[in-house]
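Hi everyone, sorry if this is the wrong subforum. Our group has a chain we'd like a structural model of before ordering constructs, and none of us has done structure prediction before. Sequence below.
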Amino acid sequence: MKEEQKQGISGGNSLIRKLKDIGNKKIVNTLNISSLSWKRVYSTFKTNVLSILKTPYVEIIGNINDPKVWENFRKKYNNVAGIYMLINNLNLKFYIGSSYNLRFRVYDYKTVEKDSTRLIDTAIKKYGIENFTCIILKTVNITNLTDEKSKELILSNEQYYLDLYKPQYNLRKNT
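Answer:
Right subforum, don't worry. Here is the predicted structure as tokens:
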């Protein structure tokens, strides 16, 4: 097994991945430590979700559609500003966003409106939110900052990650 395929545990909600050859396809077994449930995801890619990450990250949340995962996320990231990534586990395309309150922003993806035409929303409707992994890239402390300074700080951090990762689901490449 290649080294990039041997991603180990990096925190309570980390993912363990094993790749097995099956013909031309790969089966990715995902164990979400926080929910202790196995699930199989089919991919034709040799890399896995974690190999996309180029920088340290705060936490891999996993499947926000899982009630236990969502409850932990909801409690931990309520009123926390930051930058997040949503990765499609099936094609490894991803989206980067930011928010003053990560809990409310990420909840929007659990409840995508039927008529939404945003690229990330279309992908979630097509593949299902259960096939996306949420990763918190960075939290931003905006305590005691004016609204203008808070917005500037959050958006400058988001722009850094947009420039670094060049996400496929983001239509606008500038904040």
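For your construct planning: The longest strand covers residues 132-140. The radius of gyration is 16 Å.
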